[in-house]
Design brief:
The protein is an alpha+beta fold. The chain has 7 helices and 8 strands. The radius of gyration is 19 Å and the shape is elongated.
């Protein structure tokens, strides 16, 4: 069996003396693992870096086998990210979150969104908000999407300012104000408006983090990525500076 697809390297581990097991998020085939023969060689190590865009050829005798990868570099994004701690934290967060996706289940919309985040990593004024939106998409693709279209209390679609931690639904400013201490703030950039500040991004991470912990990480009894916590702390420091 064989297929060919575009993908992003999201994880790598050694296998034997010379090979590696690569984890690739592909456009049309989802998250796949495969062995890369010679993956620890000087030639392949720069390619097998998380965040790099590759063309993948997967082969196996039977569909249920792990199979092997042949990889061709398309865009080696990892290099310029590794030199910037904040971007590296964002990259590691994205890669760790992508590993929560079911194996071999196509999610082209989420793949395309990850591609957008990576393509904007050089612009520190843009990619953090894109990463929040990507986490929103992850929740949606896993079946735990938030409903930010209209107010849970009034049914109105305007003046939305909060999100209920119980239902994951938006709440208008008028309906939510008496209970605002129990609700999450809804950053405007998650509701279709353009522009944001660091405080908005932090509110977005707070919102997605709550539901990711409840629905994705908590049930699996695993910790949220440390890189994500580091990213949020450093964004707080930027806001306070």
């Amino acid at each position: 069996m064989e297929w060919r697809d575009e993908g992003v390297v999201i994880g790598v581990r050694p296998h034997g003396e010379t090979s590696a097991i690569a984890e690739i998020l592909t456009a049309e085939h989802g998250r796949y693992l495969g062995m890369v023969r010679g993956g620890r060689s000087r030639h392949m190590r720069p390619v097998l870096q998380p965040g790099n865009l590759v063309m993948v050829t997967w082969r196996a005798r039977l569909e249920e086998h792990m199979g092997t990868f042949q990889l061709e570099a398309l865009s080696l994004k990892a290099g310029f990210i590794l030199a910037h701690p904040l971007r590296l934290a964002g990259l590691n967060t994205l890669m760790a979150m992508a590993q929560m996706m079911p194996e071999r289940e196509p999610h082209p919309r989420l793949y395309n969104a990850a591609h957008v985040v990576l393509s904007q990593m050089e612009d520190d004024a843009v990619w953090p908000a894109l990463l929040v939106r990507w986490e929103m998409g992850l929740l949606d693709e896993l079946g735990f999407g938030l409903d930010l279209s209209r107010c849970a209390a009034t049914g109105q679609g305007d003046d939305l300012a909060y999100v209920s931690p119980r239902s994951g639904r938006a709440v208008s400013k008028g309906a939510g104000l008496p209970y605002h201490e129990r609700l999450f703030l809804l950053p405007a950039f998650l509701n279709g408006e353009e522009g944001f500040v660091v405080a908005d991004v932090l509110e977005g991470f707070k919102l997605t983090g709550f539901f990711l912990e409840r629905h994705v990480y908590g049930p699996r009894q695993i910790q949220m990525p440390q890189a994500r916590a580091w990213l949020c702390e450093n964004l707080k420091e930027q806001m306070a500076a």
